[in-house]
Automatic annotation (TrEMBL):
Keyword annotations: Methyltransferase, Transferase
Disordered: annotated segments: 1-24
Domain of life of the organism encoding this protein: Bacteria
Claim: Transferase is one of the keywords in the record: yes
Keyword Disulfide bond listed: no
A Pfam family recorded for this sequence: Methyltransf_11
Record-annotated membrane-spanning stretches: none
Organism encoding this protein: Acetobacter estunensis
A GO molecular function held by the record: S-adenosylmethionine-dependent methyltransferase activity
Protein name as annotated: Methyltransferase domain-containing protein
Phylogenetic classification of the source organism: Bacteria, Pseudomonadati, Pseudomonadota, Alphaproteobacteria, Acetobacterales
Length: 243
């Protein structure tokens, strides 16, 4: 019986990830490639990526801080660069695939005495061990273009966030046209060593009905990143209409 349930679960997970694949990046990373990439990046991540991504990270955490509810899941917490920006009222659980990145985050929590960080766990964000409706808010900063199956990530976050909760993403998304889009497609060849996809389209993460109901805001520098906020209640209403 368990085997049957397991198979049904993994088959439906495959369906979900296939739905986004048509829009997916040309070079896909699997979990081992993600771990290997971030093993290399862990020591220099803050210096190389910390600066350019700081504004997007601060904007996303400020948005989380304004939302109701205290239980926050930070997905792909990395070296924990965002952790000091949460207000004390938010209780944060961080998860990441990379033990090397998490080691840096744990060090930051100790060094900065971050008492509102409840746990930092090595866990796959596409298939967590959390019960349904465990969190008020889930936030994924610069993670959606790194996970092997972005649609599975979205499905999992919808499961673990309460029906009146929120899901936020801040990410770089592919510019469909123009010079910037051409550069992003060119950079995609380096996806494996970069550990992320420069040619990652929003449609690879979100189905059209979610894009339609999302709050989508460009974030500096130069709108390079985008903050996406999804309200679970809007999703439920959309799903009821379809049913
Ligand atoms: C670009 S870093 C972003 C780190 C952090 N959010 C930040 O703002 O600096 C992407 C992180 O996502 C993690 N990651 C990738 N796939 C994951 C998955 N399936 N589950 C959990 N973490 C994952 C990587 O290990 C890495 O630490």
């Amino acid at each position: 019986m368990n085997e049957v349930l397991q198979r049904v679960r993994s088959e439906s997970a495959e369906d979900v990830s296939r739905q986004g694949e048509a829009h997916g990046p040309k070079v896909a990373l699997d979990a081992d490639a993600v771990k290997a990439a971030y093993r290399r990046w862990a020591g220099v991540y803050d210096t190389v990526f910390g600066g350019i991504s700081a504004f997007g990270r601060k904007r996303a955490v400020a948005a989380v801080n304004r939302l109701p509810g205290s239980r926050v899941l930070e997905v792909g917490v990395g070296t924990g660069l965002a952790l000091p920006h949460y207000t004390a009222a938010k209780r944060v659980t961080g998860i990441d695939l990379s033990g090397d990145m998490l080691a840096r985050a744990r060090e930051r929590v100790r060094r900065d005495h971050l008492t509102n960080v409840d746990a930092l766990l090595e866990m796959d964000a596409e298939d967590t061990r959390f019960a349904d409706n465990s969190f008020d808010i889930a936030v994924a900063m610069f993670v959606a273009s790194v996970v092997p199956h972005p649609r599975r990530l979205l499905t999992e976050l919808k499961r673990v966030v309460k029906p009146d909760g929120y899901i936020l993403f801040v990410n770089h998304f592919l510019t469909p046209h123009g010079v910037r889009g051409a550069i992003e497609r060119g950079m995609a060849r380096a996806s494996h060593s970069l550990g992320w996809h420069p040619d990652f389209a929003m449609e690879a993460l979100l189905p059209p009905e979610d894009i339609a109901r999302a709050r989508i805001e460009p974030v500096p520098p130069a709108g390079l990143f985008t903050l996406v906020t999804l309200r679970q209640e809007d999703l439920s209403a959309a799903q009821e209409k379809v049913a």
